[in-house]
UniProtKB/TrEMBL annotation:
Annotated Pfam families: RNA_pol_Rpb5_C
UniProt function note: DNA-dependent RNA polymerase (RNAP) catalyzes the transcription of DNA into RNA using the four ribonucleoside triphosphates as substrates.
Segments forming domain RNA polymerase subunit H/Rpb5 C-terminal: 4-75
Protein name per Swiss-Prot or TrEMBL: DNA-directed RNA polymerase subunit Rpo5
GO molecular function, one term: DNA-directed RNA polymerase activity
NCBIfam families: PRK09570.1 (NF007129)
Keyword field: Cytoplasm, DNA-directed RNA polymerase, Nucleotidyltransferase, Transcription, Transferase
Reactions that this protein is recorded to catalyse: RNA(n) + a ribonucleoside 5'-triphosphate = RNA(n+1) + diphosphate
GO biological process, one term: transcription by RNA polymerase II
Cellular component, GO, one term: cytoplasm
Gene: rpo5
Record-listed E.C. numbers: 2.7.7.6
Protein family per UniProt: Belongs to the archaeal Rpo5/eukaryotic RPB5 RNA polymerase subunit family.
Length: 77
């Protein structure tokens, strides 16, 4: 029986950005995709959400103190 890792309480929400969202985020942050922190194509969450190489993933971490912290990762091999 497989567990859905996306439902685990310690795994933050991951969302693959579409092209227009990715362009907006890169412009807002004033960075090139290669300047973003990386996440591997072999990462279990990347596989679970169907992200592909060169996709940008938005990670939304929730906490009692910071409420919501958003970060972005570039998927790479």
């Amino acid at each position: 029986m497989k567990k859905d890792i996306l439902k685990h309480q310690l795994v933050p929400e991951h969302v693959v950005l579409n092209d227009s969202e990715a362009k907006r985020v890169l412009k807002e942050l004033d960075v090139h995709p290669e300047q973003l922190p990386k996440i591997k194509t072999t990462d279990p969450v990347v596989k679970a959400i169907g992200a592909k190489r060169r996709d940008i993933v938005k990670i939304i971490r929730r906490s009692a103190t910071a409420e919501e912290f958003i970060t972005y990762r570039l998927v790479q091999d």
